[in-house]
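REQUEST
  id: r-88c1
  op: predict_structure
  target: Integral membrane protein
  payload:
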Amino acid sequence: MKLTTGQSGRRGIPMPLWLQGAFESVQLAVITAVLILVPIGAVFFTGGFGNPPADEIARLAGQAWLLVHGVPLNVSMVTGASSAQGQAGVLSLVPLGLTLIPFFLAWRAGRRLARASYTDQLWQALLGAILVYAALGLATGYVCRTSSAMASLPAAALVPLIPVTLGLVIGARREAGTWGTLIGVDAAARMAAASQISRWTGSYLWSAARAAFLAVLVLLGLSALLFAINIAVHWADIAAVYQGLKAGPVGGAVLTLAQLGYVPNFTAWTMAWSSGSGFSLGVGSSVGPLGTAVAPVPAIPILAALPVGQLSWGVLAMVLPVLAGAAAGWWFLREGENHFDDWLAIRIRQRWLSAGLGTVALAAVIGLGAGVLGGIAAWFAAGSGGFGRLTELGPDPVQTALWISCEVALGVLIGHTAGPWLEGAKARRSAREEFDPFADR
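RESPONSE
  id: r-88c1
  status: 200
  body:
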C-alpha cells in the first residue's frame, strides 16, 4: 500500500474509503443517540419516570432513536388485571423536526466523504456508510425490544437509511458542485447531444417541476406563519395546559422539545388545513377551515391552539395555496422556458388561443406537480398515535394532493397571466428612474 502525505505533513497509510464511510456512519449514529439520551436521562434522574431500571430507560432511548429515524413501533398496553386484556397498535407519527438531526449530520458526512474521494470512488465510501448504518439500526431494533414496544427488524435496518442516504447524497452533491463531478456523467453534454425537441421538453418539464417545488415551499412558509400566529393567539390556553400538567422544569423542557420536534408535522397539517382538505385528530374527527369537530384530545399543550367551532374567517386561509401558485406562475414566466407555448404559437395562428392553451397546460402541469409534492409532505406528516381513536392523526395525502393541485393551478393561471403586466410595470419604473433618478422623490 502506498504511503501518502496528509494535511498534517506526516506520511502514513491512507484510510480505505469504505472504512472512512463506516467511521462517519458510526459517528452520526452516536451523536444522534446522545442528543436523544440526554433529555430522556434528565427526566429519569429527576424522577419523571418513577423508578424503572436503567436498562429500561436505555431501551426507551433506543426506541426513540428508531422513531426519530422514521421506524414505526408496535406498541401494546395492558388495561386489565390479566395480561390478555390490553390494546395494541402502531406508533408511526414521526417527529420530522428531530429527523432533521440525522439528515443534517449525514449531509455533513457526505461532504466529508466527497472531499476524500475521487469521482469514480465515492460509491465505496457511501456503500460503507450505508451498510454500517443498516447494521446499527438492526442491532438497535433487536436490543431495544420490550414487551410494550418493539420494531420490525427489517424496518429497523432499512427505514433509517432513508434520511441518512438522502443526507449523504445531497451533501456529496453539494461538495462536488455538479452531478457530473459527483458520478462522472456530464448531464449538460448529454443534453447537448439530444434533439431540439428533447431539449425543449426537458427544459420545460424541469422548470415546471422547480415551479411546483417553489409553490409547495411558499405554501409551507405561509402555513408556518399562520401556525405561529395561531400559537400566539392561543398562548394563554397553552400556558394553562402546562400549568395543569405540573411537569416541573425538566419535564416541561423535555415536553417542549418533543413538541418542537413535531413543528414540521404541524406545519404540514396547517398546509392541509389551509387547502380545505383539513386533517384528522383521531378517528371520526375533522379539523378544517370551515369548522372543527373533535372529541376530547390528550393534555398536550400545543393542542390547545386548535381552532374550534365554526370559523367565519377560515375560508380566507384557502387563499394561501392560490398565492403560492401565483408566485410559481410568475417565477416560471421569468424563467422563460415555456417551450410548449412556443410550439403552440407556431401551429396556431390566433395568439390569444395559443397563449390561453399554453397557460392552461402550464397550470395543469405545475398544479399536478405541487399536488404530488404536497401529498408526499402530508403523508410524511401523518401517522398513528398507537391506540384507540388516535390511530388516525394528520391529513389525508390523497385529498390534500387533490385540493392543492386545483388551488395551485388556479394561482398559476393568475400569476402567469398577470406576470407580463407586472414585469412591464417594473420595466417602466426602471426606465423612469434611469431617466430621472429623482422621479419618486
